[in-house]
UniProtKB/TrEMBL annotation, chain B:
Organism: Candidatus Aramenus sulfurataquae
Keyword Amino-acid biosynthesis: no
Domain ABC transporter, residue spans: 4-230
Record keywords: ATP-binding, Nucleotide-binding, Transport
InterPro entries associated with the record: AAA+_ATPase, ABC_transporter-like_ATP-bd, ABC_transporter_ATP-binding, P-loop_NTPase
Keyword Transport: yes
SMART domains in UniProt: AAA
Name the record gives this protein: ABC transporter
Similarity comment: Belongs to the ABC transporter superfamily.
Molecular function GO labels: ATP binding; ATP hydrolysis activity
Amino acid sequence: MMKRILLTTKAVIKDNLSSRATWFFIIFFPLFLTLIFALGFGAGTQVHQYVVVNNQQLGKYINQSQLFTAIYGTNEREAMLRGYIFVNVTNGKVNIYYPQNDKYLVPSLEAIITEYYDKSSPVIFNEHQSSANAYYVYVVSGMIGVIALSNGVFGVTGVASGYYRDKLIDRLAASPLRSYEWVVSLVIYEIVITLISTVPILLLSIVFGVIPIVGVAFLGFLVISTLMFSGLGAIIFGLTPKDKLFVANVAANVITIPLMFLSTAFFEIDAFPSILRPLVEYQPVSVIDAVIRDVMVYGQVPSLFDVFYIVLLTLAFIAVGSKLMKLRETD
Amino acid sequence: MLSVEVRDLWKVYKNKVEALKGVTFSVNSGEVFSLLGPNGAGKSTTIKVISCVLKPTKGTVKVLDHDVPGECNTVRSLIGIVPQEFQGFSDLTVEENVSYFASLYNRKVDVEDVLERLDLIKYKDKKFKELSGGYKRRVAIACALTGGSKVIFLDEPTVGLDPKSRRSLWEIIKGLRESGTTVILTTHYLDEAQTLSDRVAIIFDGKIVKTGTPEDIMREFKKESLEEAYLALMESLGEV
């Protein structure tokens, strides 16, 4: 059993990794996307400095100054990762968290806040400086979930469609290879390419000045995420009529692109319209990214809810996907 | 001795299409048996049921005395199949492709010997995608031979091949028969069926409408070739 799985995995890996197109999609595409978001939307290119404020009235007042763009939010960590200034007003004390490069903006911001509050009762400011390049880390960690998504979904639908077209699946169906051995081989292949894709992204993180915490937890969640999205890919392929295989790739795109961009991979939750926020926050890529950020950036235990949610979804997708993707009717 | 026995086989797909409506035939060990018929008649469905890919809706199917679908694990380890337009792992070499399929079976296979038999030794390090159509078909047959090689199914093996490659595949099929392998062939080329087959079955609208040796069928329709006899039969069935 194990022998057939390993030999099938080896054949699939060798067959696919000999193609330049595969290398483009597993190495250059994620790198390209990361660089676009990190450099294109990073703090270094901001014309306006964003300020996240936990007080809506103060936010409106700051906006009137036209020096800053204030948005309402309560998540300091997210704001720091985005390279924003975060203002937290509690009991008359104003805590200002700011990226290293924005230190020069703090006096102006403090002046506006002082003006907003009653001048007779002086405001107490506490300043906290964060490390540089926080937004890059946000994008890099966000990209990990996107890699698991794109490799899992496109990997399974692409490879399976290609092999179906080439009648390889017909041949395998009439061989002693069991359906679960076939599915496990494909999933191992997806895990291998996800690990390959992740390496340059982690190296990029180091280039940006942040050493990622790559431990067992990180690798474990990376594997689980790939399993989850491979299961989703198997569901898409399994539901596709085999005389219309192009539908599998269209469906993969239709599902993957919103999951990719309507997630917290590149933009924090506050950047989305409020009507979309619950959807964005609880869709799988966002939950995976939250867990990956916890283990890779902060080195802390992720929320139990998030872990439970990911494991449950993975089991569901894999169970349904395996059932739909069986090699033959007689299994 | 019978290699394949099919009795009153029905296959109804989930969309209610009745692909097979009581197909009955048998194939003797060591013979070349051709399934002929127009597109959509049920040839490929029959092969897929016998090779344990599709589940029969009703009827009895036995391969080398093993029941389908009850003993499919055994059946799959005894048969080889060449699907129509089989492409193999395109970026693997000829030898890697054949070795991979050999590794799926629980028996020792001499890959070199299989490559030798199909005149593939000199191409063993070539990638599958770099081969001509004729040699790709040879690799497909080599992959099938690594299975049981007791019963081999060839689904339209010569489609799209030039005349020389086609003739060369005919020789390979004749060689299989000489080595005692049972060959079940589907083809649209009636000259091929006439040359290669010991017996043929003509399937039409999910039913076997004629079985016999090519000579018997030609005699019955008083025709000089199997193709002419086949056309006469189709005309009598209202298929113009």
